[in-house]
Amino acid sequence: MQGQAGGRQANRASRPARTRRAETERFRNFLDGFPKRYLLTHSPEEIATHYRMYKRLGHSSAEISVTKRDDYYELVLVTTDRPFLFAKVAGTISSWE
User: Fold this and answer.
1) H or E, element range at 62
2) Burial label, 87 (beta-carbon count in 10 A; 0-12, 13-18, 19+)
């Protein structure tokens, strides 16, 4: 009996480690989709925000954030790629006044 209980405790203890490893792998896969300059031009906080948006993609077709800065707006769009997506988004944004 004690052997089984000890095995269950060891299994429970290793579950968080497996979860961390899986999350680390998912984060690496996320970063692999970007050019290296992404890491140089975005703060760790921005990257974390983008990653959280990416993780929510399973629940929606796109995640969008619009933030007013001093004299401009910052738009972050996270979605799966598809043909002509960038052209459509750029065309839509350029029509705003």
Assistant:
1) strand 62-68
2) exposed
**Helical ranges in 1-97 per DSSP H:** 2-32, 37-41, 44-55, 85-94
- Residue listed under structure tokens 């996320």: 30
Which tokens is 45 given?
């906080």
Pick from 52, 65, 60: nearest CA to 26? 52
Tell me the angle at which helices 44-55 and 2-32 cross, rounded to the nearest 10 degrees: 110
Q: Tell me the whole-structure pTM to 2 decimals.
A: 0.71
Please give the average pLDDT of every successive group of 10 residues along the chain, which has 97 residues. 55 75 91 92 95 89 93 92 92 87
Of how many residues is the chain composed? 97
